[in-house]
Inverse folding.
């Protein structure tokens, strides 16, 4: 009985962009175990909404025992979370999932985030102990950019061209002639598909963080599966559980 | 000394709380939250003769007071299940109920025969999954088919047989009587109600399967009514389920005529739900001076 659903205190909340919020939680136990790329399940306080919302961990402050979640309002559940103020409580289960792997010091890594896939890359860029560059892709409004710049050089892409390279993260990588031995990425499916193809073509090691609608969050219900290249050792079919076996997978493992 | 144990087809459960198939895997994931030995029984996710890949994603959608699922009975097949999941569950002091699914009568029989020599206490035959094209519910919506599959399974089964009924029928008591006529030892009800959700922003179905099974508190009054009607119609013990979130919900099912209850969607909302309900039933018994939980079954008529 190792896992625990706990009630934690809200340390503070800020709005980063139109519908993007940053929530700090006093969650020492989770913070002490968490690693970049993992997520937590956050439960709403309205029992008409039964399922927890999986939110990626943006930052882990182990000293303060605090956890930062940066999320986009996607519906009534996250709308409720955005109303939490300092001193309120939140129901949280985690850390869940596997997280990003450690990368050897001699390698050059690109930490690539697209849209609401950007937040989990912040803790990753802090933790990476190799040569590293963050590549961030936005639609238009920027968020978290300055925080990434504290830890690594940042290459930007915006769809409307208002900042950085006009286009997507791959356009930015090509425009800035970024070279890498390993790619770590989180973002929308088309971006991950393109990065998988790019990494294969360049012969680069590639790790992708996937998302899917989840129910249990702990590997029991088989809602959030992705297609796997090989027959999976647990499911014995071509399926892997994103919540339990992922959310981070080797690009070659999964069919996108 | 108060008694919380109940008997289903000669199998004694230490308390009436079971898990609902498909919501609890084979128990491993939730064993990190609750002591499985506190439960009356663990009902496994449906298992077929061969591995099934299940449906495309998205497989679930939240709705008001519940959820829709269309997992499509993904399972690793009986060989892996018998080698891995049964030995895991044997480590706990709880009864093991294996949910069996199939596309054809032969598929069901193959799994049932394969389980004959396994340390399994009860079989639950899934003739009510709304999310697969062949088998599943096709066996559960026609009384002749219900009776025939029940007879065929009973002829080969070494363990007592529970038939799991679908609420997606005009009159569930007709199906219950058919299962009884086929020789069923017990019934579980209800499986999920077929539903649909549309994403108005993407103008598409929320589930890749278009339809899915509705579960959660939203279905509870329907389930309580069906358990009550079925309890009046047949003599078989009933395992009641459908939207049980609390001990109060579980007690409603017992009073309506269920001998035991199963907790499903609640596990997603609260991973401790099963044990919380066990404890809540005990508190209810103490509060009203009930010495035997079996007194509750069918107490409201």
């Amino acid at each position: 009985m190792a896992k625990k659903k706990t009630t934690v205190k809200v340390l503070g909340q800020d709005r980063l962009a139109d519908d993007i919020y940053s929530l700090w939680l006093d969650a020492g136990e989770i913070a002490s175990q968490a690693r970049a790329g993992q997520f937590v399940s956050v439960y709403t306080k309205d029992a008409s909404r039964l399922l927890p919302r999986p939110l990626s961990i943006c930052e882990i402050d182990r000293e303060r025992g605090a956890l930062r979640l940066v999320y986009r309002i996607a519906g009534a559940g996250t709308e409720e979370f955005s109303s939490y103020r300092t001193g309120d409580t939140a129901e949280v289960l985690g850390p869940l999932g596997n997280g990003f792997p450690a990368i050897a010091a001699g390698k050059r890594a690109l930490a690539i985030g697209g849209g609401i896939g950007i937040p989990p890359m912040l803790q990753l860029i802090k933790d990476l102990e190799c040569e590293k560059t963050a590549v961030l892709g936005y639609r238009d409004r920027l968020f978290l950019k300055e925080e990434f710049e504290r830890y690594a050089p940042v290459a930007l892409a915006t769809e409307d061209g208002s900042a950085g390279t006009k286009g997507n993260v791959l356009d930015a990588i090509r425009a800035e002639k970024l070279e890498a031995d390993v790619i770590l990425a989180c973002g929308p499916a088309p971006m991950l598909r393109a990065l998988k193809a790019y990494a294969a073509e360049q012969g680069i090691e590639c790790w992708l963080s996937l998302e899917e609608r989840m129910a249990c969050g702990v590997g029991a219900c088989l809602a959030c599966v992705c297609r796997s290249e090989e027959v999976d050792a647990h499911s014995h079919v071509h399926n892997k559980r994103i919540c339990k076996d992922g959310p981070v997978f080797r690009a070659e493992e999964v069919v996108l | 000394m108060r008694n919380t144990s109940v008997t289903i087809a000669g199998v004694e459960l230490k308390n009436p709380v079971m898990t609902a198939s498909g919501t609890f895997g084979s128990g491993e994931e939730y064993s990190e939250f609750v002591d499985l030995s506190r439960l009356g029984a663990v009902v496994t996710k449906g298992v077929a003769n061969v591995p099934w890949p299940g449906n495309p994603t998205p497989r679930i959608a939240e709705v008001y007071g519940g959820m829709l699922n269309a997992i499509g009975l993904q399972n690793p097949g009986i060989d892996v299940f018998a080698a891995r999941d049964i030995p895991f569950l044997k480590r706990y002091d709880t009864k093991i109920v294996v949910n069996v699914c199939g596309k054809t009568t032969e598929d069901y029989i193959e799994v049932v025969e394969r389980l004959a020599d396994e340390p399994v206490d009860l079989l639950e035959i899934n003739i009510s999954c709304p999310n697969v094209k062949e088998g599943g519910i096709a066996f559960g919506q026609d009384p002749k088919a219900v009776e025939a599959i029940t007879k065929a399974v009973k002829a080969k089964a070494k363990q007592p047989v529970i038939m799991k009924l679908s609420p997606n029928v005009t009159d569930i008591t007709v199906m219950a009587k058919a299962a009884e006529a086929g020789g069923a030892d017990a019934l579980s009800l209800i499986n999920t109600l077929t539903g649909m959700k549309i994403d108005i922003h993407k103008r598409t179905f929320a589930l890749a399967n278009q339809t899915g099974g509705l579960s959660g508190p939203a279905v509870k009054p329907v389930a309580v009514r069906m358990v009550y009607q079925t309890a009046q119609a047949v003599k078989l013990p009933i395992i009641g389920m459908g939207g049980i979130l609390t001990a109060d919900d579980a007690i409603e099912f017992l009073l309506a005529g269920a001998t035991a209850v199963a907790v499903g969607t609640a596990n997603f909302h609260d991973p401790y739900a099963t044990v919380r309900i066990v404890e809540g039933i005990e508190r209810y018994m103490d509060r009203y001076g009930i010495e035997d939980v079996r007194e509750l079954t069918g107490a409201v008529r």
